[in-house]
Amino acid sequence: MHDLFDMFGAIATMIAAAIAVVALSNWRSQFRHSARFESLKGLKNAATELHTFRKYLITVQSRCMHLMHSQGVEDKALKELEETARQTWISALQTYNQAWGTAVVFFTAEEEANFSGPAPLFTQRSLDDPMRIVMAYANAPEFENRHEFIEACRGITEEVRHLYASTVSELEWMLRQKYRH
């Protein structure tokens, strides 16, 4: 009889351990899902401020356009406006970089590979695109070349607009997909 109770006790202990493992696994999965959702939401919220990059590029374009019109004479107000826009952009980029660092750990390899707006891309573009605009001006500084300059700038700012829109759209889609699961 004592052996029978020992056997039932061992079985009950194994069942309790199995239930605990399943419960812990479920809790961990729910916690991970919740953390993933929150990090994606934070990334999406940070991404909504990435529109400031395009605004910054437009101020670079405006300053260069003024230089064309004035035969190279700087406008202090435009330079200050550009610096303010640059600082606003840098702040938005820093926020996005921080949110990216938190969220990317929850991306699958496929999601990360297919995502159109990773933070390193925005960082690289923030170095390259203002220089592309300045180079477009430097290659054609005369007022007669303004149409080529404007077209070059339009191409750059449209690329950035598309990058911003696709980044925010993809994050919204990911949030909707994660919320359903």
Describe the protein's architecture and organization.
With 181 residues, this protein is mostly helical. It has one domain. The protein contains six helices and no strands. It has helices spanning 2-47, 51-69, 76-103, 109-114, 119-139, 146-180. The radius of gyration is 27 Å and the shape is rod-shaped. It starts with a helix and ends with a helix.
Give a short summary of the structure.
The protein is an all-alpha fold and 181 residues long. The chain has helices spanning 2-47, 51-69, 76-103, 109-114, 119-139, 146-180. The chain has six helices and no strands.
Biggest sheet character:
none
Number of helices: 6
- Unreliable stretches (pLDDT < 50, length at least 5) are 20-24
> Strand-and-helix sequence, N→C?
HHHHHH
Give the CA-based shape.
rod-shaped
Determine the mean pLDDT: 87
Radius of gyration: 27 Å
> What is the distance, rounded to the nearest whole angstrom, between the alpha carbons of the first and last residues?
49 Å
Total domain count = 1
Helix content: over 70%
Instruction: Please state the structural category.
Output: mainly alpha
Tell me what portion of residues adopts beta-strand conformation: under 5%
How many β-strand runs? 0
Kindly list the characteristics that best describe this protein.
single chain, 181 residues, mainly alpha, 6 helices
